[in-house]
Each structure stands twice: as C-alpha cells, then as structure tokens.
C-alpha cells in the first residue's frame, strides 16, 4: 500500500519535472537574439523535412476525406431534398474541424515521430554533447529550427488540406452525383464566414502545430539515450500529441463556436 | 545543389499555402472586399425580427442590394431597430418603400425584402423606412389559426 502510494507520488513528481524541463527547453531555445544568417538555412532544411515531405500524405488524405464527406453528405441530405447543401456541409466541417485536427494527427505521426527519433538518436550518439563541447548551443542549433518549422508548416498544411478536401467534395458532388455547381458553391459561400470559420480554423492549427512540435522535440531531447528509450519516446510523441490535439480541439471549439 | 532543391521545395510549400489561403477566402467563404467600404445606411423599425441576424441579405426583387449591419432595441419605442447598408449604386429606392422580413425557402435564413414605392424622393444616408412588416413567427400563426377556428 505504502509502496503503491510512493510510486504514484514519484510518477507525479517525474511528470511535473518533465513538464518543467519542457518549458525550460522552450524558453531557452526560442528566447535569444535572432541570427538570420545561421538560422535561416537550418530553418529551410527543417521546413523541407517536416513540411514539404508531409505534403503527399496531406494531399492524399485531404482528397479522400473530402470525397467521403461529399458522398456521405449527399446520401443523407438527398432524403430531405436539400442535396444542394452538400457544399456547405463539406466546407464547414473541413474548415472548422476536420482539416486542423486530421492534419495535426497526421503531422504528429509523419513529422513528429521522425523529429523525436532524430533528436533522440543525436542524443544517444552524443552529438548533442559534442555540439556543446565545441561551444555551440544545441538548443539554438538543433531544437529551435525544428520548433519554428513545425509551427510554420502545420497551418500551411492545414489550409492545403482544406482546399484539397473541398475540391474532392466538389469532385464527387458536382461531377459525379450531378449537383448543380452554382448552388454547390453559392451555398458554401453564403454559409462560410471568413473570420469565424476560416480564421478560427487557422488559429486552431497554429495551436496544434505549436503543441505537436513541442511535444515531439521535447520527447526526443528528453529521451533515455538507448534504443529502447528512443522507441518509447517516439511512441509517447504520437500518443501524447494525438491526445493533446483532440483535447485542445474541444476546448478551442467551445471557446470559438460555443458562445460561452 | 542539394540546398537549392530544398529551398525550391520550401518555397513551393509556402506558395501553396498562400494560394490555399486566397482560395479559402475568395472561393469558399465568398469574401469580397468591395462590399464593406461603400454604401449608405438606412434604418427600419420592426415589431419582431424573428431570426434575422447581422450580415443578412437585403434584397429587392430577390437581388441583393445590401446587408444588415446592426440590430438593436429602440428603447423609446420598444421595437427592434435594424440598420442596413445599401450599396451606393442603388440610389433609386423611393422614400415610401416598405421593408419585410422574409424567409428563404421553408427552413432557410431570414432576409429583408424591400418593396419599392412611388414617391419621387429617394432614400439616402440615415433615412428611415416607416412601412415595415415583421417576421412571420410560426407559433403566432398557429395561434391565430386556432383562435379563428374556435370563434367559428
């Protein structure tokens, strides 16, 4: 009994300490005078790694999710004789919810895990330590570019996801099921508001991008430097960031659309 | 050379993001930058605005000629006071036009329909439409119907 209590207490304290280290890492890596000449090439490299290389999975899943939404929306709405509202349904559900959340989940699986494994391996092979030996701050050189790259690329990917999804929806609804394209787009434009729907979706993706990349980088930076530790850290990245994204999504939705 | 292809890739990603944002703004949400600037404000009091919201359409013969910009309570008359912005090019609404709150379709959104009058003088900035007809509220309609049935 006492042992169990001790374990709970120890775990709680460990978690708390890890959260503290995560915050410390964030502050130390981001708050520093900017050095554009050295940072910019590193940032471009990371943007390519986490952003451009995630593009294919985002495009394919966006297209299929949009097509499925178009198809499902049509089969339901046709019962009420209001199949013209498919455009509105596809656009609203993508822009408000599905694009930010699904993109963030895919991003956590595709880019977050890779970042964790990379940094974890750097730590295990003592590359981070050798950076420190030659007087280069690994937080500035390794961590900061990755944080910025994730923060910048997720909103971009989310917008691409929305556009491709809506295009997929119109492909199914207009070209295949024969809804009149004028009413498809007019209904969509009448119901989607730029500031409440599109901008709120982008705000969501900014928050998700920050959280996912923070978790990914920290799990790598804090990994136990063994092969087992890296595999555990990678798993934790995907699990924690998925949970964080879904939980935060509810909170953000409640704040944005819940009229509280 | 490797760095160059990376840069091109990242540039392409950012360009694709910008194009997506513009597409979302213009094609999906129908944002237009001309509506919000021009136009003149007119006012109308309604007994009941029903489900009318801000940014609802103001139309003449089904063609949009403006939008609702504000809905507030006139504390003296205890009626809803609706402020509408009418596009500048619509300068031919006569002073005795009437305004009705209508519904698009059976379950659709509420909008304001303007019926033109006959006077020479036209509505201008700050003028008020006096002849108004409130939104049709289903419960009131059913109530009236039942009342008529009983009195028969």
Fold and architecture overview:
The complex is a heterodimer of chains A (260) and B (152). With 260 residues, chain A is an all-alpha fold. Chain A contains nine helices and no strands. Chain B is elongated, with a radius of gyration of 23 Å. The longest helix of chain B is centred in the first third of the chain and has 27 residues, at 2-28. Helix content of chain B is 27%, strand content 32%. Chain B is α/β, with parallel strands linked by helices and 152 residues long. At the A-B interface, helix 2, helix 6, helix 7 and helix 8 of A face helix 1 of B.
Keywords:
heterodimer; A: 260 residues; mainly alpha; 0% strand; elongated; B: 152 residues; alpha/beta; 2 domains; eight-stranded mixed sheet; 2 helices; 8 strands; 27% helix
- Helix content, binned percent of chain A: over 70%
Give unreliable regions of chain B as ranges.
Answer: none
Counting structural domains of chain B, the number is 2
Radius of gyration of chain B: 23 Å
Shape of chain A: elongated
Q: Secondary-structure element order of chain A, as H and E? A: HHHHHHHHH
Number of strands of chain B: 8
Query: Approximately what portion of the residues of chain A adopt beta-strand conformation?
Result: under 5%
Give a quick account of the main beta sheet of chain A: strands, pairing sense, barrel closure.
Answer: none
Q: For the residues shown, what is the average pLDDT of chain A?
A: 90
